[in-house]
Design the sequence.
């Protein structure tokens, strides 16, 4: 009987609101649920910077000596810090393990230098160092806690001619790499 009475009386505003709420609850629009990839891209960028810095750190610690590369010894106790690695052996100069140019008897061919035999700027080495400088500056822009300082680790054969060493140092300076360290082996008796 209550249903018959409800059907006979005119609908009130509260009845209308109740019916509308009921219909809305049944037919709610489904909101699109998507994956926001921007935080993941930020995370991947940070991981990439971290991995690049980790690989750069480990390069000087894994130096293998050979007939072409005999590293001098020292009693110094400085730790290896992250830096660009330049290796000077009797037959080549390499940057981060990749050959930049070949040497003849430990010396740079005059045709590879700006100014010929009197020049100090080694052109192929300059090109490679500028590419690394640009890459490291780009990384420094995205990682505020690691500014570009121009750090270099020089791993040189103990028989490297002084002239070759000076040419490499001059070329490094022209490429904005100014903080350099020479990698040496600890002497056995130093403790």
Sequence:
């Amino acid at each position: 009987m209550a249903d018959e009475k409800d059907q006979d009386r005119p609908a009130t505003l509260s009845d209308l609101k109740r019916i509308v709420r009921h219909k809305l609850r049944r037919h709610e629009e489904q909101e699109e649920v998507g994956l926001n990839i921007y935080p993941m891209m930020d995370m991947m960028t940070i991981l990439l910077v971290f991995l690049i810095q980790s690989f750069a750190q480990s390069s000087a610690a894994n130096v293998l000596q050979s007939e072409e590369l005999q590293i001098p010894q020292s009693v110094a106790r400085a730790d290896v810090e992250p830096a660009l690695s330049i290796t000077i052996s009797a037959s080549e100069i390499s940057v981060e393990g990749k050959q930049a140019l070949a040497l003849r008897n430990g010396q740079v061919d005059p045709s590879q230098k700006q100014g010929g035999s009197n020049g100090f700027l080694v052109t192929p080495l300059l090109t490679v160092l500028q590419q690394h400088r640009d890459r490291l500056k780009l990384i420094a822009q995205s990682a505020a806690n690691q500014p570009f300082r121009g750090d270099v680790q020089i791993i040189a054969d103990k028989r490297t001619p002084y002239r070759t060493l000076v040419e490499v140092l001059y070329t490094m300076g022209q490429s904005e790499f100014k903080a350099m360290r020479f990698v040496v082996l600890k002497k056995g008796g130093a403790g």
Observations:
- The first strand starts at residue 73 and ends at 74.
- The beta strands are 73-74, 84-88, 92-95, 98-102, 113-114, 121-122, 151-156, 179-182, 185-186.
